[in-house]
Fold HD domain-containing protein.
Amino acid sequence: MTYEEAIAILNSMTTSESLLRHARTVELVMRAYADELAQNELQWGIAGLLHDADYEAYPEQHPHIIVNILRERGEEEVAHAISAHYTKWGVPYNSLLDKALLACDEITGFIVACAQIRPMRLQGLEVKSVLKKLGQKSFAASVDRDEVKIGAELFGVDLSEHIGFIIEVLQAHTQELQLAPQQQQV
């Protein structure tokens, strides 16, 4: 599958600005990890980009629609990773790709939520601040803290280092992600 085909699939089912940004942020983090671990960057990026592609259009069937589309296109590894990106679905974690997607999904969304409430957004965001917010169950309450913990463990990364890695990746794309510091009003 080409990147352009993946974008077309995403755009055919997703219009929400926040969900499109989430897809892009997880894609960026997955690509960075693929590069770091000498994996297939395009494949990992597409897994990140499409993991929630059907969520807006088919919330009750998520992730079955996107998984079936990928399987029909012969993208079994990406389809399996997407089918496993939530532990409560009971799908086994067979590959590093499966574990990486699980590890990157919830925490990347959480880090973006942390950045959005700060005037400086991602600039200067520290790991300790994210960890502190993780302890506040009322903040970004929809983020499953167990998934964050289990994901890091399965992927074999220290949670603090993982958060730091993700922050660095996202900081390199602050303008695109609209997470640059807010302009002062004069």
Q: What stands out?
A: The chain has a mean pLDDT of 96.
